[in-house]
Specification:
Largest sheet: 5 strands, parallel
Number of domains: 1
CATH topology: Rossmann fold
CATH superfamily: P-loop containing nucleotide triphosphate hydrolases
Structural class: alpha/beta
Radius of gyration: 16 Å
Number of strands: 5
Mean pLDDT: 87
Order of helices and strands: EHEHHHEHEHHEHH
CATH architecture: 3-Layer(aba) Sandwich
Length: about 200
C-alpha cells in the first residue's frame, strides 16, 4: 500500500479553476486514473438505488457527509485497482478539511496535493460556459454559493497539507495549454513526481 506504484494525488481548486480539464489531460498523458468527485456524485444521483436525502444534498450543492462519501470513493478506487489502475488523480477532494482524514484512512495519504489557483472572475466565466455543454445546474447562483464555500474552507486545507510539504500551487488563470505547462513544470520539480515518473 505504501509503494510508489500505488499513489493518489488530491486536486483542489475553486469551481471553474480547470480541475477537470487539466486532470483529464494529465491522466491521459501519464497513465493516471482520473476520479472526479463531482462526476461520481452526479452518477450517484442518477441511480434509482440512491437515498433521496443524498440526491437532494448533491442537487442543492451542499457537501455530502464524509461517512457517505468515503465508502463511495473507496468502492470506485478498489474497482479501479482490480482493473490495474494504481495511480489516481482525485479531482475535487477534499472540499473541507474534516473530509481528509477518514478518506486517507480508507485509501492512503496523498503523494501530492495540487492547488489550482484561479481568480474569481476567470473561474466564474469558465463555470458559466458549462451551461452551454449540458451542465444545467451550473448557474451564477450556484457559482457564488460554491465559490464562497471554497473561499471559506480551502485555506485550512492548503495549510494542513503545506505543513506536510506536499502542496503545489499552480496558477491556472491562463489558457489550457499555458496552465498545463505550468502544471507539468511544477510537478517535474518535485521528488515525489520524479519517483512516480520512473514507474510510468
Amino acid at each position: 500500500m505504501d509503494s510508489a506504484a500505488e499513489s493518489i494525488i488530491f486536486i483542489i481548486g475553486a469551481p471553474g479553476s480547470g480541475k477537470g480539464t487539466l486532470c483529464k489531460r494529465l491522466a491521459e498523458e501519464y497513465g493516471f486514473s482520473h476520479l472526479s468527485v463531482g462526476d461520481l456524485l452526479r452518477d450517484v444521483t442518477s441511480s434509482s438505488n440512491t437515498d433521496v436525502t443524498i440526491i437532494d444534498t448533491v442537487k442543492s450543492g451542499e457537501l455530502v457527509p464524509v461517512e457517505v462519501l468515503a465508502p463511495m470513493l473507496k468502492g470506485r478506487v478498489d474497482k479501479g485497482k482490480e482493473d490495474g489502475q494504481m495511480k489516481i488523480l482525485l479531482d475535487g477532494f477534499p472540499r473541507r478539511l474534516d473530509q481528509a482524514a477518514p478518506v486517507e484512512r480508507l485509501l492512503r495519504s496523498p503523494t501530492l496535493v495540487l492547488f489550482f489557483d484561479c481568480p474569481e472572475q476567470i473561474a466564474e466565466k469558465r463555470f458559466l460556459t458549462r451551461m452551454l455543454t449540458g451542465r444545467e445546474a451550473d448557474d451564477e447562483q450556484t457559482f457564488r454559493k460554491r465559490y464562497q464555500e471554497f473561499s471559506r474552507l480551502n485555506p485550512s486545507i492548503v495549510e494542513h497539507y503545506r505543513t506536510r510539504g506536499i502542496v503545489l500551487e499552480i496558477d491556472t488563470s491562463g489558457e489550457t495549454e499555458v496552465s498545463y505547462q505550468r502544471l507539468i513544470s511544477a510537478l517535474k520539480g518535485t521528488g515525489a513526481w520524479r519517483s512516480l515518473a520512473a514507474l510510468m
